[in-house]
């Protein structure tokens, strides 16, 4: 049994040397932005106090925030970890437990934050399809504007050893696997994990742990927007502001989201998404090939596979699997275990 079961992701935290550049990007990305206590905050329209935090300092990812269901859960977690429950001296108040995961990532578990009234600043009009045509004598007229961030949905962390990190997060927070991704049969590279909310629907993933080559860090954080029109208006707006596009627009296979990825001025990758899968605790985990991670159901191919000189997808998967096998063998030899 896990120590507690978190109910959602709460926020992501960064440092940046230029608050004006970060503030402008977050506004263009579709958040409501404000300053408090020497930090820059971004919030969505779900009533939560904030979903994105920027501290002063050299550009870097600082922490992921998870939301516990109650203050009692925070007490339980703190007792199990031998740490203290602290006051959260940030917008919305509440309490916080600070942990560090096996890769050194700061994990901020919060509860008791004040919540305002949610709003729906972007209309969701009826849509005509071949199955039904409810929109009659009404034209759609969209205004050019940033997308409207509703909430934070998930984060993706690069890890050294997927199985070690998976156990750490599941044992403490009760995450369930939606899809485990394999580079080859029996060679897992990561998993999309969702919150265990029992019979209540949960996003296909709140956390994706990925054992991939390269420097550790946050691969991206994802924010839900109102709908497809909102996402596309956001894409158009960010492109007009000449921000760096990372990947999109397209529809993922695992999770099914329509996605659009962008880089902030400091190289952090943020995603707009809409129309993702929802599951309950009754839905069993699946195993999926790495190809399903790189491919799309429609839309822009993964940047690794784009361009005239792109490597064949099969070669990319083979090299990933080979790298993971070598690392696994090396770790076993270091531990004195037979290969």
| E-strand count | 20
Q: Largest sheet, order of strands side by side? A: 19-10-11-13-9-14-17-16-15-20
Strand content: 25-35%
Order of helices and strands: EHEEEEHEEEEHEEEEEHEEEEEHEH
Q: Bin the helical content.
A: 10-25%
Radius of gyration: 20 Å
What is the distance, rounded to the nearest whole angstrom, between the alpha carbons of the first and last residues? 31 Å
The backbone outline, from C-alpha atoms, is globular
Query: What's the helix count?
Result: 6
Major beta sheet summary:
10 strands, mixed
pLDDT under 50 segments (min length 5)?
Answer: none
Class from helix and strand fractions:
alpha+beta
Mean pLDDT: 93
């Amino acid at each position: 049994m896990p120590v507690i079961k978190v109910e959602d992701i709460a926020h992501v935290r960064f440092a940046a040397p230029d608050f004006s550049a970060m503030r402008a990007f977050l506004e263009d990305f579709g958040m409501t932005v404000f300053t408090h206590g020497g930090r820059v905050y971004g919030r969505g329209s779900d009533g939560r106090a904030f979903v994105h935090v920027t501290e002063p300092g050299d550009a870097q990812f600082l922490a992921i925030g998870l939301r516990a269901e109650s203050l009692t859960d925070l007490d339980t977690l703190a007792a199990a970890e031998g740490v203290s429950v602290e006051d959260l001296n940030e917008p919305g108040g509440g309490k916080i437990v600070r942990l560090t995961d096996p890769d050194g990532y700061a994990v901020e578990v919060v509860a008791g934050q004040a919540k305002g009234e949610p709003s729906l600043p972007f209309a969701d009009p009826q849509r005509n399809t071949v199955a039904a045509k409810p929109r009659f004598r009404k034209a759609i007229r969209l205004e050019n504007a940033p997308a409207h961030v509703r909430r934070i949905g998930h984060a993706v962390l690069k890890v050294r050893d997927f199985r070690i990190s998976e156990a750490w997060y599941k044992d403490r927070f009760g995450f369930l696997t939606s899809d485990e991704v394999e580079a080859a049969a029996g060679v897992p590279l990561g998993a999309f994990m969702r919150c265990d909310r029992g019979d209540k629907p949960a996003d296909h993933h709140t956390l994706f742990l990925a054992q991939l080559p390269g420097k550790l860090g946050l691969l991206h954080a994802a924010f839900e927007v109102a709908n497809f029109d909102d996402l596309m208006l956001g894409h158009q707006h960010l492109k007009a502001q000449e921000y760096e596009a990372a990947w999109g627009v397209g529809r993922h296979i695992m999770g099914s989201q329509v996605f659009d990825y962008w880089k902030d001025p400091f190289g952090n990758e943020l995603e707009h998404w809409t129309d993702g899968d929802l599951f309950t605790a009754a839905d069993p985990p699946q195993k999926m090939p790495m190809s399903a991670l790189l491919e799309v159901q429609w839309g822009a191919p993964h940047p690794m596979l784009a361009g005239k000189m792109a490597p064949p997808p099969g070669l990319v998967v083979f090299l990933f699997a080979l790298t993971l096998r070598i690392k696994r063998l090396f770790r076993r030899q270091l531990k004195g275990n037979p290969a």
